[in-house]
Design goal:
By secondary structure, the chain is of the alpha/beta class. The chain has 3 domains: about 5-230, 3-Layer(aba) Sandwich (Rossmann fold), CATH 3.40.50.980; about 315-410, Luciferase, Domain 3 (Luciferase, domain 3, Roll); about 415-565, 2-Layer Sandwich (GMP Synthetase, Chain A, domain 3). It contains 18 helices and 27 strands. The strands form 6 sheets. A 7-stranded mixed beta sheet has the order 2-1-10-9-11-12-13, sandwiched between helices. The chain has a 6-stranded mixed beta sheet with strand order 6-5-3-4-7-8. Strand 3 (about 55-60), helix 3 and strand 4 form a beta-alpha-beta unit.
Length: about 575
């Protein structure tokens, strides 16, 4: 099929269950009737000046109306804009206005978030899906036939705001043709079939949920079990109750699931395939074993859809794997554009040449397949550097002599400790082996003299506590721990901040750095870890002042220094 609209139209008349949500159920034919109703509502709206397509912004949790509006806009050939609900104030208004939304569909949960904002949309076009006026509007568009014509494959369908993990969120373009082609390939690749039950727990404003869960189900007529938001405590009961066969994840989802108490019945489930990204090898192993689901697939990709790297038989455990068929990728120096040297490891697996081997992951000659960002030429230029057609992902990585790729972190995760450069990702892969840790996240904080110090923020498993002596012994026993990879600071937290799609948000952790009550400190590689007190933190701040590097202090330290200068207690 050439368009996603054709995929959707293929479900008209299909009496198999298409959507299940909070005790309610719709056949695929029911779903399409609801979609046709929303399509009719959209056709009554004049698009903005100079545009033939209507842009509908959707600010909803994962509720049935999100699906109905998305599929309705698809049938029309209109544009769906998924609005990230974690954005607030001016940022949220910017997203709505930047995407030229003609209509905003929302719910009472977000009423306060949009109140008083200049969204550029008339009040009568801001719809509350729980209001009486909304029900009346839909009643006037019931039993409407689908549009008589199909959209062009080149017609814009989705504006998907990126997670912002490699910079400010950008609206990624996705056309009818791209999603239509991708849907057929993905359904086959992850083996979603007519009997499948897809668990939709990731937010629908992000491409992962649309492309890998909803669109695949529409392709083959599988059933979608949808929840408002991901819940680790509800996940295990849900997969058993609904006989889920497939779900996908990003970021910390597997970690959150594994942190739940084990049950003897965990293996009694229908899971066939699990697909995701950014889980550690240890988490993938643990999930496979605990839930008796051997087919857990990790992969690397970009929201822009131009690169995919997946494990293959023989891939080193900590690697991403190899580029998918038809994809050519390289590791290049972001300053010169020259391909980096291949990574070398010693017998213990220590990366010996991180400085020369680490660079940016680049999809070679994928510019023509990159549909670009909406009204953002600067972001386009950043991705297609040096005036070429190669796509620069903004992610760090390295590649070994056999061609396997390894994730090195985001650009902000590149550290320089005692003159040595390295990425945070390989450090995190080691730290998460510590028995007490449910998750571990590494990043650089300023050194009072020059460069960075390594800091780790970790969560602990239920029933465990952080033992600094045991942790020190653990680090000493890791043969692949680089000589500069021992964290200077370790902070223990109940939970780490995440973006709306489950990726770790390290920005607030960097801003707080050591200015918290739960930070352990080992100033040298031979020092034991000791809990920091206020006098210790004050001494650290003073060291920056003495070295003339006060401006390099993290944000929280800057605020405390300002209080000290004004004569107020730093605490």
């Amino acid at each position: 099929m050439e368009t996603f609209a054709e995929v959707v139209r293929g479900r008209i008349g299909d009496q198999r269950e298409g959507l299940r949500f909070e005790g309610r159920s719709w056949t695929w034919d029911d779903v399409l009737r609801e979609a046709c109703c929303r399509a009719s509502v959209l056709r009554a709206i004049d698009p903005g000046e100079g545009r033939s397509q209507r842009h509908v912004g959707i600010l909803l949790q994962n509720v049935p109306d999100f699906v109905f509006w998305l599929l309705g806009a698809t049938l029309n050939g209109d544009v769906v804009v998924g609005i990230n609900p974690t954005r607030r104030g001016a940022e949220l208004a910017h997203d709505v206005r930047h995407a030229d939304c003609d209509l905003l569909v929302s719910e009472p949960l977000y009423a306060d978030a949009i109140a008083g904002l200049d969204l550029g949309i008339p009040a009568e076009r801001i719809l509350d899906v729980e209001s009486a006026a909304y029900s009346t509007l839909l009643q006037s568009h019931q039993d409407v036939e689908p549009p008589a014509t199909l959209p062009d494959p080149s017609a814009l369908l989705l504006l998907l705001f990126s997670s912002g993990s490699t910079g400010a969120p950008k609206a990624v373009r996705c056309t009818q043709g791209r999603l239509g082609r991708l849907t057929a390939k993905m359904a086959d690749r992850i083996e979603v079939r007519r009997h499948s039950v897809n668990y939709l727990c990731l937010p629908l404003f992000h491409g992962h949920a649309i492309m890998m869960t909803l669109a695949n189900a529409a392709q083959v007529g599988a059933t979608v079990v949808m929840v408002r938001r991901f819940s680790a405590s509800r996940f295990i009961p849900d997969i058993r109750e609904h006989r889920v066969t497939f779900f996908n994840y990003v970021g910390r989802v597997l970690s959150y699931i594994l942190s739940q108490p084990e049950q003897e019945s965990d293996k009694d489930n229908s899971l066939e395939v699990v697909f995701g990204s950014e889980a550690s090898p240890a988490e993938v192993r643990a999930f496979r074993e605990r839930f008796a689901c051997p087919d857990v697939r990790e992969g690397y990709g970009a929201s822009e859809g131009v690169i995919r790297i997946t494990p293959v038989p023989g891939s080193p455990e900590s690697s991403l794997g190899l580029p998918a068929a038809g994809v050519v990728a390289e590791i290049r120096d972001p300053e010169t554009g020259v391909e980096c040297a291949r990574a070398r490891f010693d017998d213990a697996g220590v990366l010996l040449n991180a400085d020369e081997a680490t660079g940016e992951i680049v999809a070679v000659d994928r510019g023509p397949g990159f549909e670009g960002y909406y009204k953002n030429p600067d972001a386009m230029a950043q991705r297609l550097k040096f005036g070429g057609q190669d796509f620069w992902t903004g992610d760090l990585g390295y590649r070994d002599e056999a061609g396997y790729f390894y994730f090195g972190g985001r650009p902000a995760d590149w550290l320089r400790v005692d003159g040595e450069n390295f990425g945070a990702a390989p450090v995190e892969r080691i730290l998460v082996r510590f028995d007490a840790f449910a998750g571990a996240h590494a990043f650089g904080v300023p050194d009072p003299r020059t460069g960075d110090l390594l800091m780790a923020v970790a969560t602990v498993k239920d029933g465990h506590a952080f033992d600094p002596v045991a942790f020190d012994d653990f680090l000493a026993a890791q043969p692949d721990l680089g000589s500069k990879w021992r964290p200077t600071f370790v902070r223990i937290v109940p939970a780490v901040p995440t973006t709306a799609n489950g990726k770790i948000d390290k920005a607030p952790l960097r801003a707080t750095a050591w200015e918290a009550d739960d930070v352990w400190h080992a100033p040298t590689r031979s020092s034991p870890y000791r809990l920091l007190g206020e006098q210790d933190r004050s001494r650290i701040r003073r060291a920056f002042v003495d070295a003339g590097r006060e401006n390099a202090l993290p944000a929280a330290s800057q605020e405390l220094r300002a209080g000290e200068r004004a004569g107020f207690p730093a605490s």
